[in-house]
Predict the structure.
Amino acid sequence: MTEKAPVKQEVRSGITDSLSVGIAIFPLGIALGILVVQAGLPLWVAPALSIGIFAGSVELLLVSMLASTVPLVTIAVTVFALNFRHVFYAFSFPLNQVRKGLPRAYSVYALIDEAYVTYSLMNRASLTSARILTGQLMMQAYWVGGGLIGITIASALDEPIHGFEFALAATFIVMTLDAIRSKRELPSAILAGLSVSVALVLYPANAMLAALLIFAVLLATRYAIAAARTRTGDHA
Amino acid sequence: MSETMYLIAAIAFGGLITLGLRALPFAMLAKLRKSKLVKSLGEWMPAGIILILAVVVLVGEFQVRGSNWWMVLVATAVTVAVHLTCRRRVLLSVAAGTACYVLLVNFF
């Protein structure tokens, strides 16, 4: 670990890391704030969601569910299904680089998609505890801050502006482009593309979860094939 | 149950479930850290998972727009084009794609 690097510089790197996803998080936070106001919920629900749950897509969905007072069981099942993908993040997120204790606990609590995407693809050796924590804290600040601004905007506007949610799609598109630049990542991308296509056709209602499960099975198969090849000395 | 109590309980439930889903796998994988399978999966997963997130979010947006599906297509093309031609600056590409989409959605 490169803990010797000055903390100030690491904090600065963390802020830079957070900016590229922050441009998506912030407008989505605004969208959340606007939705809370339009649903007629108390204003404190927006920051309470962003701090209590801190999982973007689920929060946006919960707003309408809370407004229609759906049973708590339904909320629990929905959150479980939508956030189940986080189970896969433990495989690649560089949690070992984060200092034990409170910092590590926060890092796990704040492991949103954007944090996973940002830090799982970086070279572990260049990642320090201060950098990862700063990045994650900043991401949550954009999200909570965006929500508060959204509340303010919605209270002032008669008609809201739509379409900001595309920032999320755009971020993932751009990150996909960057992730599959090297040939090494191509097999994974092809298997993932196959998984998501099959999932969308067979399980449109739960496409995300289905795609991730199929992808995990395909990768395990890939591992088994690679292992079998090494054993038989076939260097294809 | 009052409305306030309901909201607090719902958010607390949602938060605990999310935290559990994030924390438990780390606890379980800690024992398997030396496993080659877990190591390979850790290396192979990120690029694919990001692609899956991108596709699912985009498909959702296509469904929201219905007959205006072309707006999603145009904004996606703008995002990709800006990213590939303007030296892969994430902020710029995302801002361009989103601005294009907001304009299309609100003025067409």
Q: What stands out?
A: Chain B touches chain A through 67 residues (CB under 8 Å). Residues 1-32 of chain B form one domain.
